[in-house]
């Protein structure tokens, strides 16, 4: 069992061996994010990344109304979007710093060494896309409604969707369609274009599937899992040749692990392998 995690607006539990479940917990506001939430999110995932008792993570939202409705626009308009300076350059620099900090907090999910499974349901707008695209696997309930909402509030999405979404799905036309129109689209369309890998009939079933998948991953060699995620993410943004070279260097060290011997022996002996903590 991992040490206790106590962070405002988040429930962190450990429902299966080596599996963490992070639940966004502001259901009375449809899990809309205020600044303290993304700071805590970053802290949670940085800690999970190095926790030897965790090998896979599920991310979901509390309540039935929303995974997250995105950024709490009212709180943002009263705080982070107002700058007490008349000089445009200084105001711009302050805003840029704030955006970079926000981006880094969401990127902490992507940088987590352990695979992260997003389970979306109901309203999943704006920041929901930024956040889920930083995850490794995306599942959703059939009632999920998605929207890249930012153009409707007068700005280009700036926390990750416009950079990650074109790499997550194959259709550039569809990406521009949903980003430029801010239209709401259903789970069936998200599945059609590969934004999610599976649609379940309810939130309960989707969370259970996420935990089941996380437990399956957690039963594998943690050395192999961490290496697989690292190489996939590295190779995604580079040429095949660069990815192959990186893989050769990575495995030159990691293939020497005892996990390889344990996995092969368990296959021969027809038993489930047990791996040491990483």
TrEMBL record:
Instruction: Give an example GO molecular function.
Output: delta(3,5)-delta(2,4)-dienoyl-CoA isomerase activity
**Main localisation, per the record?**
other
Q: Give compartment(s).
A: Peroxisome
The family database entries (InterPro entries) matched by this protein are listed as: ClpP/crotonase-like_dom_sf (IPR029045), Ech1-like (IPR045002), Enoyl-CoA_hydra/iso (IPR001753), Enoyl-CoA_hydra_C (IPR014748)
Q: Name one GO cellular component term.
A: mitochondrion
Q: In which pathway does it act?
A: Mycotoxin biosynthesis; Lipid metabolism; fatty acid beta-oxidation
Matches recorded under Pfam families:
ECH_1 (PF00378)
Question: What does the UniProt keyword field contain?
Answer: Acetylation, Fatty acid metabolism, Isomerase, Lipid metabolism, Peroxisome, Virulence
Q: What is one GO biological process annotated to this record?
A: fatty acid beta-oxidation
Q: Which family does it belong to?
A: Belongs to the enoyl-CoA hydratase/isomerase family.
Q: What is this protein called?
A: ClpP/crotonase-like domain-containing protein
């Amino acid at each position: 069992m991992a040490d206790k995690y106590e962070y405002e607006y988040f429930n962190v539990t450990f429902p299966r061996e080596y599996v963490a479940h992070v639940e966004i917990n502001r259901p009375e506001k449809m899990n809309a994010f205020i600044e303290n939430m993304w700071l805590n999110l970053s802290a949670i995932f940085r800690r999970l990344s190095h926790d030897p008792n965790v090998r896979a993570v599920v991310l979901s939202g509390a309540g039935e109304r929303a995974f997250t409705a995105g950024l709490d626009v009212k709180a943002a308009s009263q705080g982070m979007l107002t700058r007490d300076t008349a000089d445009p350059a200084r105001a711009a620099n302050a805003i840029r710093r704030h955006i970079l900090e926000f981006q880094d907090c969401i990127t902490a999910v992507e940088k987590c060494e352990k695979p992260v499974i997003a389970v979306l349901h109901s309203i999943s707008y704006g920041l929901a896309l930024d956040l889920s695209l930083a995850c490794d696997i995306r599942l959703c309930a059939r009632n999920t409604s998605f929207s890249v909402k930012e153009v409707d509030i007068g700005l280009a999405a700036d926390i990750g969707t416009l950079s990650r979404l074109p790499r997550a799905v194959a259709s550039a036309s569809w990406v521009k369609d949903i980003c430029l129109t801010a239209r709401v689209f259903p789970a069936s369309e998200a599945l059609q274009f590969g934004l999610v890998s599976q649609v379940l009939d309810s939130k309960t079933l989707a969370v259970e599937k996420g935990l089941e998948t996380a437990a399956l991953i957690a039963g594998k060699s943690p050395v192999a899992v961490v290496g697989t995620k690292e190489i996939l993410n590295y190779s995604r943004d580079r040429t095949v040749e660069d990815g192959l070279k990186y893989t050769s260097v990575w495995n030159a060290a990691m293939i020497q692990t005892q996990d390889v011997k344990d996995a092969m022996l368990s296959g021969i002996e027809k038993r489930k392998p047990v791996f040491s903590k990483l």
